[in-house]
Design goal:
alpha/beta; 5-stranded mixed beta sheet; 12 strands
Length: 303
């Protein structure tokens, strides 16, 4: 299989993906095609394993946790968003839960095993001190609900107490009173990273590097002061149906990397693993974690 093959790039159809969508429209399927993964990072990790996609733009914590737990079918090849993701903590419209403290020991809805919604529920438990006598995070009761709609339904039918999802993606459902926000939790790491299959046939290094270079230019165009002042707002309103002020609020918070996207911070990888280990999501091997186990150095540059 040659390096000129068309890459299949998995993504979540949310506003963060705007630079990718703009690049895809410009590319016209010549070098890559986009594959929508609305259930999120857990779905993309599975699709990477099943050979349905070759590259994914996904949540940093879940990608790193998956590799730490033994996944060898993908590795990190780049960075995509450098600011944290603000996770809303969401319960049902008429549920009895009115604060984060009320959620301790209650079942939490997640999209997929290994998803950001699962990882961040454990981080929430850590940060709120929901630990046992030995200081370990209490076991969290996860209920897999797959889709965003099923997650919303589950907090209203009482099968789960809460779920966690990106703030702005869920905001309209809070405004319409379908669900309620009772808190939020920003990630203590940059929110989005890029992973690729470890198969050089499916993800030839040269092809992936070319994709990352093109995406870097698309991100820089989207991230420019001129684009942020107007075109970005109109694009997100048109593509995702958000209200203008909500778009402007999001743009005021989001940061994309200044450096080429093929750079991966070794410190970010290790710092993320430290928090995930404390949250009980991963366990450190003998000798500790090594950045080289997480990053494909044939494609990415560790900084």
């Amino acid at each position: 299989m040659s390096d000129s093959r068309v890459l299949r790039v998995g993504y979540v159809p949310e506003h963060f993906s705007s630079p990718l969508l703009q690049l895809a429209a410009k590319d016209g399927g010549k070098t890559f095609e986009i594959v929508s993964c609305p259930s999120g990072t857990g779905q993309m990790i599975q699709r990477l394993k099943d050979g349905e996609i070759d590259v994914s733009i996904a949540l940093t914590e879940s990608l790193i946790a998956g590799i730490a737990k033994g996944a060898s079918h993908y590795s990190l090849v780049g960075s995509y968003v450098s600011s944290p993701l603000n996770w809303a903590i969401i319960t049902g419209a008429s549920s009895p839960y009115n604060s984060v403290a009320d959620l301790r020991g209650q079942p939490v809805g997640i999209s997929r095993t290994g998803s950001g919604s699962q990882v961040m529920a454990s981080v929430l438990a850590l940060q709120n001190g929901w630990t046992d006598g030995e200081g370990k995070v209490e076991e969290v009761k996860f209920v897999v609900n797959d889709t965003f709609k099923n997650l919303r339904d589950s907090v209203n039918d009482g099968s789960t107490a809460f779920f966690m999802w990106e703030w702005f993606t869920t905001l309209d459902y809070h405004k319409s009173k379908e669900v309620r926000f009772i808190g939020s939790l920003p990630t203590p790491w940059p929110s989005w990273s890029i992973a690729a299959s470890t198969s050089s046939e499916r993800a030839p290094p040269e092809a992936v590097r070319a994709f990352l270079a093109a995406l870097t230019e698309s991100v820089r165009a989207f991230d420019s002061a001129e684009a942020r002042a107007g075109p970005d707002v109109e694009y997100i309103k048109r593509e995702f149906g958000y209200e203008e002020q909500d778009v402007r609020n999001w743009l005021g918070q989001v940061k994309y990397p200044d450096a080429p996207l093929e750079e991966v911070s070794g410190k970010v990888v290790l710092d993320t693993l430290e928090v995930l280990e404390k949250a009980g999501v991963v366990s450190s091997p003998t000798g500790g974690f090594q950045t080289s186990a997480f990053v494909n150095s044939d494609i990415a540059k560790v900084v």
